[in-house]
Amino acid sequence: MKEHLLALKEEALEVLEKVATAKELADLRVKYSGKKGALTEILRGMGKLSAEERPVVGQVANEVREAIEEVVNRKQDEFTKAETNERLQAEKIDVTLPGRALPQGGLHPLNKVIEQIEDIFTGMGYRVAEGPQAETDYYNFEALNLPKNHPARDMQDSFYLTEDLLMRTHTSPVQIRAMEAMKGETPIKVICPGTVFRRDDDDATHSFQFHQIEGLVIGKDIRMSDLKGTLLQFAREMFGESTEIRLRPSFFPFTEPSAEVDVTFVKKNGERVWIEILGCGMVHPKVLEMGGFDPEVYSGFAFGMGVERIAILKYGIDDIRHFYNSDLSFLKQFARQ
């Protein structure tokens, strides 16, 4: 049996040294030292050996097993290293190649317009004021000369949270809060950007949620001509130096006199047209009083514009819903502007 074991060792080592693939190595390992391999087959005959022969044969069997495992492990390491080197060569990275540019986001077109409007007016000495979106009936209506049951409230169908609390229908409440904060001191020059809410059906030109920017100036000897000059400067910075404006008489409960403001636009065919962009007027005496100012001493003007409308005109967009549907193909157009 000892001779059989030594012969098996010699045969196995010779064959294992010549093995060419990892699969072939695994098969030979099973053949020689597996549970049903040649070494196990020989050891089944140990029961026929004498007590003196068993330890000797057992020692030789262990040496054969160790010799086979040593060669198998060495050859396995060689195959593993060769496979690793082959993969490294195949997957080699050229570190001199330029990196892949990561996609970058950009400002939403509405945010771009808001920032531009803020820049224009802060450049004229205005400060930006903000207020709550959930507003009281007093600040949203009553302090703006819209008492309860006033017919003008029908134009601003509202989302009421309680009997006295609602989602603001315009950013004009911020003007009242700014006036109260000044406690009768002037001058006041603020713009009030923010989100507003009205019960409206969504279509190409309407939304239940949109953005407004209101402006307020209060001081002594503030005139309608100051308002017109301010809006002309804004229009030219927003739409171009050749832009002209015109004021048409209108009605707002919180201003008197009131006006709608149109600006000139040139169509693709070269035709020059007037398009409405905002409403404005001189602050109503009752609104001045509610804000803590004596209308016999102080005067002021106010204006309000829809951000979406300005953006539609500025960028030539035909549907307000494009601003809210998160279509990346639409939004990417403005990332480079």
Automatic annotation (TrEMBL):
It comes from the Bacteria. Residues 106-313 form the Aminoacyl-transfer RNA synthetases class-II family profile domain. Binds 2 magnesium ions per tetramer. Mg(2+) binds at residue 256. Keywords: Aminoacyl-tRNA synthetase, ATP-binding, Cytoplasm, Ligase, Magnesium, Metal-binding, Nucleotide-binding, Protein biosynthesis. PROSITE patterns: AA_TRNA_LIGASE_II. This is Phenylalanine--tRNA ligase alpha subunit. It comes from Paenibacillus kribbensis.
